[in-house]
Amino acid sequence: MKKRIAMVMLVMVLFTFMAGCASPEKTEETSKESVVLEFGHIQTVDHALTIATEEFKEMVEERSGGRVTVNLYPASQLGSAREMMEQISMGTLDITFADAADWATTFEIPKLGVLNLPFLCKNLEEQTGILSEIVPEEVPDMLEGSGLHLLMTYSNGIRNPLLKNAPINGLEDIKGIKMRTAETELYVQIWNSLGASTVTSAWSEAYTVFQQGVADAVEADDVGLVSQNLQEVGKYYSKIGHLGQTYLVLINEDKWNTIPDDLKKIISECAKENQENQWKARAQLGEKAEKTMADAGVQINEVTEEEREKMKEACAGIYQKYAEDYGLEELIERMEAIAIEE
Q: What is d(CA 32, CA 21) in angstroms, rounded to the nearest whole number?
């Protein structure tokens, strides 16, 4: 009997000893897990989107207790938008953001371009409804097999034209205008559909192209125009609201899959909060940018809903392509309904 009791006690001691040894080892391993995220983009250091990325960095590093480090590289330090998108694919960069249409072209995922349909949303309120409801539901499926993971979504505002010679009050005013636009296929299609001729250039060259008369007008969001001091050249800012810019913030999928689950949870929560903060702040920054243009002598005008509808009808071929070629008719109808509700 004594031998049996002694044997049981020995087993219990050994079990306690082994459990005690195993537990600290696991705790020590977990406490050492850390992640470094390299985040590059093209926007200038004072741009609204740069401010948003700085907030994201602060939130993630603080809430992870320093276990996650986010290194930021703004102002095209690591290359052009396209180059950084390609770096994400190769895994030499972890995170970047770009317009949905640019992701669509670079990675041959044409369905992503539906988020940039022309005249879909004329203001930030309408756009926010689409960003909050449509993007998280639809984009992950569109990205399947691409090696990219959706982290969050920013609004880069609503694009409008800034012109030298006359404002745009209706569709007829666009015909014959030489419009500087981004080197994005969808943007070129929109302006050609409206009757303008297009001059494409890198964003860094927009001021020179506009100032030297290579183009009669430039088009971008209000904050972007002011960040390049284009109000020094243009005289008329026409709020036709032809394009709401959806900026997808994507991370390399392999990188994402190596991140421990507890840190993924922290990063995801910070990303959701950060994007919502960015949407709210964007409206205030837009108002400030418009005031800067007005103070510089730029005339700002709205267009009627009737004229906007004519412009949208001129772009019907673009809608038809996404509805028929990519089978997105139902999704387009959902997006239009959300915009109307907002």
A: 17
Count of C-beta atoms within a 10 Å radius of residue 195: 15
Whole-Å CA distances, 217 to 3, 148, 220, 233, 293: 96, 35, 10, 10, 15
Q: Is the pLDDT of residue 339 over 90?
A: no
Beta carbons within 8 Å of 99's beta carbon, 6+ residues apart = 116, 156, 182, 184, 245, 246, 247, 248
Stretch among 5-19, 117-131, 202-216 having the lowest mean pLDDT: 5-19
Return the CA Rg of the chain.
25
Q: Which long-range contacts (CB under 8 A, 24 or more apart) does 253-261 make?
A: 253/146, 253/147, 253/148, 253/149, 254/91, 254/147, 255/37, 255/91, 255/94, 256/149, 256/151, 259/35, 260/30, 260/33, 260/35
What tens digit of pLDDT does each residue of 119-160 get? 999 899 999 999 999 999 999 999 999 999 999 999 999 999
With 50 as the cut, is the pLDDT of residue 2 above it?
Answer: no
Query: CA dihedral in degrees (231, 237, 241, 242; nearest 10)?
Result: -80
Cα-flanking dihedrals φ and ψ of residue 268, to 5°?
Answer: -65, -40
Q: What is the pTM of this model?
A: 0.85
- Give, in order, the Cα–Cα distances in Å from 300 to each of 40, 146, 237, 276, 303: 34, 42, 5, 28, 10
Q: What residues are paired with 247 via a beta bridge?
A: 99, 154
